[in-house]
Amino acid sequence: MEPFAHTSPLWIGAEGSTDASARVHASADLLRAIGVAEQRAREGYGDLQTRTPQARFDAARARLTGLLSAAAYSGPVTDDE
Fold first, then answer.
1. Does pTM surpass 0.70?
2. CA neighbor of 35 nearest in space, from 70, 7, 65
3. What are the counts of helices (DSSP H) followed by strands (DSSP E) for the chain?
4. pLDDT tens digits for the chain (81 residues)?
């Protein structure tokens, strides 16, 4: 069975989001997606100021990095959990 948090990142940190492995994998996938979205925004907007989208990218990256850091401190997460 595929972890549901992987396909629905809005559930991270909410009721039903208890599978640690799904949380870690979804967080890593979302970090990569943020990088892609950020690059596309830079390409699309060029030199224009994009403070609001950039602030949202930064906030999302900080939250996801925090989730990954917390998982690292609690020990390795495997797909068997």
1. no
2. 65
3. 3, 0
4. 444 444 555 555 565 556 778 788 888 889 999 999 999 988 998 888 788 889 999 999 999 999 888 877 766 545 444
